[in-house]
Amino acid sequence: MRLPHPLYGLYERRLRGSLAQDRVPRHVGVILDGNRRWARAFGQSTATGHQRGADKIADLLDWSEDVGVEVVTLWMLSTDNLARPAEELEPLLAIIEDAVRDLAATGRWRIQAVGSLDLLPDQTRSALREAERSTAEVRGLHVNVAVGYGGRREIADAVRAFLREHADAGSSLDELAEAFDVEHIAERLYTKGQPDPDLVIRTSGEQRLGGFLLWQSAHSEFYFCEAYWPDFRRVDFLRAVRAYGDRERRLGR
Question: Is residue 73 domain-resident?
Fold first, then answer.
């Protein structure tokens, strides 16, 4: 239920003030879910839903900066999504390209593309690479845009990279099996060198990860929000961060 505007603003400010700075997640992953259902609910086209979702991203990054988050990973398109009909996929890819260009153009955030970029059309891949290049020196919030991303494929790519490197060095299969360790995967993930996500948020009421950051989220806290992504508000984000801060993190211990 949405509160009347004056009360909503007061509640939002109190919620922001209640956050303990030492219990803010360093890395937040967000599954931007519900664009199509939002569009159907309002009698709009699917493309309109995706565009409204894209328009929400800069707000999320503003909110993240405000509370002290250092890394945000946005799941914008999965490998499964690439099988959608061309009449939906092509406009969606164009929206993603424009959204990433707009984020890069602000000069505020460092953009990194994570995913199987080889599966994407040349135009989309070029837009992602250009956003990375133009923001490589930015020292602000690090923003991973997961496009053509699948968690199982990421792990397979990491194992494949390990095998190729050691095969090129002449290692035998027995030597590879003896030496192989979990760190060999972690060092070859798309997000290598970054902290694992402390908090993963999924919108639209779905309570599953669907393969998002499958390896990295082993010790993450999860927050599932009922709002469709285009309707996700700052107060929803602050509630997620507060819920994270209220939890006792065991980290597998």
Answer: yes
Active-site entry in 33, 157, 196, 231: 33
Q: Which two tokens stand for residue 135?
A: 């923001």
Q: Which of 217, 171, 182 is nearest to 198 (CA)?
A: 217
Told to judge if 157 belongs to the known catalytic residues of this protein, a careful annotator would answer no
Q: How many CB atoms lie within 10 A of CB 168?
A: 8
SS3 71: strand
Q: Binding-site residues, please?
A: 33-38, 50, 78-80, 84, 202, 221
| 163 located within any domain | no
Let me know: does 229 contact 204? Beta carbons within 8 Å. yes
Question: Considering only CA atoms, which of 183, 103, 188, 186 is closest in space to residue 147?
Answer: 103
Per annotation, catalytic residue among 59, 66, 81, 157: 81
Domain containing residue 64: CATH number:
3.40.1180.10
Domain with 144 in it: 25-154+197-246
Give this prediction's pTM: 0.93
Extract the annotated binding site for substrate.
34-38, 50, 78-80, 84, 202
Write the pLDDT tens digit of every residue in 27-79. 999 999 999 999 999 999 999 999 999 999 999 999 999 999 999 999 999 99
Q: Is 81 a catalytic residue?
A: yes
In a domain, 113, yes or no: yes
Please check whether residue 84 lies inside any domain of the structure.
yes
| Rounded distance between C-alpha atoms, residue 151 and residue 157, angstroms | 10
